[in-house]
Amino acid sequence: MAEPVSLRNRVFFFGCWNQAGHFSWAPGGEYVRRADAIEHYGGDRIHLDGTLAPRKMKTYYGGGLCWQGQGATQDKRNRIGYDSEEYPQGQFLRHDLDNGFTAIQWWDRCQGDTRSACNSTLLLEGKHTSEEMLAALKEHFPHIIKNLEQNGISLVEVQKA
C-alpha cells in the first residue's frame, strides 16, 4: 500500500493551482487530500487559508503589521480580518509553525484566481530561512514563480517587529 502523499513529501504548496480554489499540493502538482494534509493547518489547528499573510491594521488601530493567525481565538482572528487590509501581492511573512513546518505566505492573485483574499503558502518541514524557503519554492513549484513574474510580482519578505 502506498504511503499518503503527505508522508512521502515534506514540501507543500497551499493555494490556487491555475484555477480558483485553495488546496494543498505536492511537487509536480499532485493534489494532497485534505484528510492527509497534516500541514494544512498552521499549528494550533489554525487553518492556513490567508491566516499567515501580512495585513495592516486600519489606521484607527495604529496601522501596524499583523496577520490573522496571531489571534488567540477564532473570534480574535476574525476581528483582525475585519479590522485590517491586505499587504500588496508578493510581500510575505515567514513563520516557524508548531507543527514542525516553516511557512511563507503572501497575497497572490496570479495563480488562477483574481479575487481578493487569494493567497499562496509554501510549507517546508523543519526550520528554514527565507532564502531556503524561496529556493525550495523555485525548485519544487517553479510555475508559481513563473506566474508571479509574468504579472510583475516579486516575492519580498516583510519583517516582523
Question: What would you say about this model in short?
Answer:
By secondary structure, this protein is α+β, with helices and mostly antiparallel strands. The chain has one domain.
Mind explaining what this structure looks like?
Helix 3 crosses helix 4. The chain has 161 residues and is of the alpha+beta class. It has one domain. The chain is built from 4 helices and 10 strands; from the N terminus they run αβββββαββββααβ. The chain is globular and about 45 Å long. It has a 7-stranded mixed beta sheet with strand order 3-2-1-9-8-7-10, with helices on one face. Strands 5-4-6 form a 3-stranded antiparallel beta sheet. A hairpin with a 7-residue loop joins strand 1 and strand 2.
Strand order of the largest sheet: 3-2-1-9-8-7-10
Helix content: 10-25%
Largest sheet: number of strands, sense, barrel closure: 7 strands, mixed
Radius of gyration from the CA trace? 15 Å
Shape: globular
Total domain modules: 1
CA-CA gap between termini: 47 Å
Number of contiguous helices: 4
What is the H-and-E element order?
Answer: HEEEEEHEEEEHHE
The share of residues in extended strands comes to 25-35%
* Poorly predicted tracts of residues: 1-8
The overall strand count is: 10
Q: How does the helix and strand content classify structurally?
A: alpha+beta
Topology:
Elements: H1 5-8, E1 11-15, E2 23-26, E3 30-32, E4 55-57, E5 65-66, H2 74-82, E6 84-86, E7 91-96, E8 101-107, E9 119-125, H3 130-140, H4 142-150, E10 156-157
Parallel strand pairs: 7-10
Antiparallel strand pairs: 1-2, 1-9, 2-3, 4-5, 4-6, 7-8, 8-9
Helix pairs in contact: 3-4
